[in-house]
Fold:
Amino acid sequence: MPNMSLKKNPMPAQEPAVRAHNFDEVALGYTPEQAMDEAARCLNCKNKPCVAGCPVAIDIPAFIGKVKEGDFAAAYEILSRSTSLPAVCGRVCPQETQCESKCVRGIKGEPVAIGRLERFVADWHMHNAQEKPARPTPNGHKAAVIGAGPAGLTCAGDLARKGYDVTIFEALHTAGGALVYGIPEFRLPKAIVEKEIDTLRDLGVKVETNMVIGKVLSVDELFDMGFESVFIGSGAGLPRFMNIPGENLKGVYSANEFLTRVNLMKAFRKDNPTPVKDVRRVAVVGGGNVAMDAARCSKRLGADVYIVYRRGMEELPARHEEVEHAEEEGIIFKTLTNPVKINGNENGYVASMTCVEMELGEPDASGRRRPIEKVGSDFDLPVDCVIMSLGTTPNPLIKNTTPGLEVNRKGGIVVNEEGLTSHASVYAGGDAVTGAATVILAMGAGKLGAKSIDEQLSKK
Ligand code: FAD
Ligand code: SF4
Structure:
């Protein structure tokens, strides 16, 4: 008999008052008993609507069925057929708009907690797996991957499993992409990403860090070195600004710079050589997931934090769960508010931000109601740090150094349905193609790139 409870098993989590002062993971994960009880909510539907909602088509009812039986090793085996980063996806995928949005249990009550179960199985495997994966037999072909984010890592893993000699060239000193420089420790511990990357290394994938392609080597030079195909997964790391007065004052950061300093460089440690200024009152401008991450990091650095967003609470693009967590931790939402100027003190540091109040008019091209400025509503918000979280675009460096590589007007690399770019034997995927998107979509693109490279090179 299935468990007919209308609610998901709640996720054990740190108390808001405690977690607002530490960088430890907020969600603590299911126990085996909770996981098996949650798995018993699955009806094992014949037509598996949840699978169609998963961008990498995990056989969801099959892995959940094994969790229900308590056979976690078999559940992991099913997961690993479709995803190389299950511990990551179980934590950060927007399941509410993907697999869980299609789950029939969601019609009357809450859907099965598919993401929490995926995380449980991946964590169980990390703690219990003894054996390293066997090294595949080499097939004699060499492929290069640019960027060690989810797109590049997935492409590299899939190629290595087919026997390719794969090298990833990564600009930063650490592999992981936005999983390590962007998403904070308290949502995705770095040790989890490292373990997933170690699994790829065990398969034979080589990772060359501090290698900015377009500066140290060009794409064409990779071919001169004997690589037969190249996959570009260089992400979308170039931040947007508002172009308002005062954005060059000390204490104004892009969200990416701020998060890189805090997450990757551990700026919260006093002995760290890459600090962030001591912050007391922070304004984060924007309403997406990245804005929530920047706000929650600032809170953990001890600041009073405002989210400044020009539309209302209803229109916030961030995941509902992230907004809820931010509110619980005491972040103040100044919605229907738009900055027009950042004001500095005599030393060139941020002292306040002038904002105007907004109201919502008719829907615009995006379908959301257009924010309109209320005349004469200017006010000063006293802050000593402003974090701009207005989205990012792909960095033009690779495009500018690769003759014949076509990009669209937003800077995304143009690819065909096989992930092939306008340059022979160069494939691309993830945020470098789509602009800022999600981990699982980047992984799906990495999978497609690996499949197409294999189809090309296996004919040689
Ligand atoms: P990236 O992860 O950006 O990786 C690209 C890699 O390429 C980087 O390591 C970069 O250093 C490297 N690189 C760039 N240029 C070069 C070069 N010239 N040479 C060599 N290497 C280069 N998605 C979710 O699904 N859920 C979330 O909760 C979520 N939260 C997020 C929070 C933040 C703060 C951020 C920034 C993103 C978040 N995302 C989330 C989005 C998600 O992380 C990205 O969509 C995903 O990481 C894109 O993967 P990618 O491999 O295409 O690019
Ligand atoms: Fe199980 Fe929901 Fe998928 Fe049906 S839709 S198989 S109940 S997870």
In short: The mean pLDDT is 93. Residues 350 and 445 are 41 Å apart (CA to CA).
